[in-house]
Every structure is written in structure tokens, then in C-alpha cells.
Design a protein that fits this description.
6 strands; 5 helices; alpha+beta
């Protein structure tokens, strides 16, 4: 005679599979799409902020915006951006294909700004005497987000 597991054991096992499976799916998604990161340090105020955001959320935001905007607003946006869409798409394709490169660097005494393509991401660094800002966004995510908005 075979003994069947109790309902409680089956329920616990189901939750465990769901919990572990969800965690693995999230980890795989982040590994594939990457992470955008915003870091701000205000030395004068003693304030520091570091926010990693799964890039999938950025893409999801662009997708939601493409559906949430009223049709007339989305159509107006696409008409206004229509002339630049081929340029932006081509630029993003070229950026993805490029090796790591500094695109813009400006040094004005105590202020400094650098925009570069580094390791598959668009990276923007800003340094001022009391403030430091770092933004990194995966280019693949920017490319896909632009696709949702341009339609």
C-alpha cells in the first residue's frame, strides 16, 4: 500500500517550486536584459543614493506608455519623432556594434561630464565639486524601448 503525501506537504512543495522558479526567472531576466544603475553622491549634504533597476522595467515602462497614452497623443508623438526615428535607430545600432568608446567628454575646470559606451551600456558620468552622478543603461534596453515608442 502506497502512502500519499498530505495536502499540507503538497501545498508547501507547490509554494516552494513557485518561489524558487520565480527567483530563477527573475535572475535569468536580469542576466539577459541587464541592470540600469543610478548613483548620486552629494558630498556637501553627506547624501548617497544607489538605485539598481532591472532594465526590463525600463522596457516595460516604454511598452506601457505605448498603450497607456491616448491614441491621439501617441500618434502626435510618433509624427513629431517620425523624422528622427531612422536616425535614432541607426545611431543605436551603431552604438551597440561599437567597441567601448568615449563619445563626449567636457572638462570645465571643476565640472566634468563624460558620455561613453562601456560594456554594452550607455554610461553618463557627471562630476561637480560637491556632487557626483553616474547613470548606466544597457543599450539593448534603450534600443528595445525606442522600438516600443516609435511603433
Amino acid at each position: 500500500m502506497t502512502r500519499r503525501p498530505s495536502f499540507g506537504v503538497l501545498l508547501l512543495a507547490s509554494f516552494l517550486v513557485l518561489f524558487v522558479g520565480s527567483g530563477l526567472m527573475l535572475a535569468a531576466t536580469v542576466a539577459v536584459t541587464g541592470v540600469a544603475r543610478v548613483q548620486i553622491e552629494d558630498r556637501a549634504e553627506g547624501f548617497s543614493l544607489d538605485i539598481p533597476v532591472p532594465a526590463l522595467l525600463i522596457e516595460g515602462g516604454a511598452l506601457v506608455a505605448s498603450f497607456a497614452l491616448p491614441d491621439d497623443e501617441l500618434a502626435r508623438l510618433r509624427v513629431e519623432l517620425g523624422d528622427v526615428e531612422p536616425i535614432v535607430s541607426s545611431m543605436l545600432d551603431e552604438l551597440v556594434a561599437l567597441d567601448d568608446v568615449v563619445l563626449v567628454e567636457v572638462n570645465d575646470g571643476s565640472d566634468w561630464v563624460r558620455v561613453e559606451k562601456r560594456g554594452g551600456a550607455l554610461v553618463i558620468d557627471v562630476e561637480e565639486p560637491d556632487t557626483s552622478v553616474h547613470l548606466s543603461v544597457p543599450l539593448g534596453s534603450v534600443r528595445r524601448s525606442a522600438g516600443w515608442l516609435f511603433g
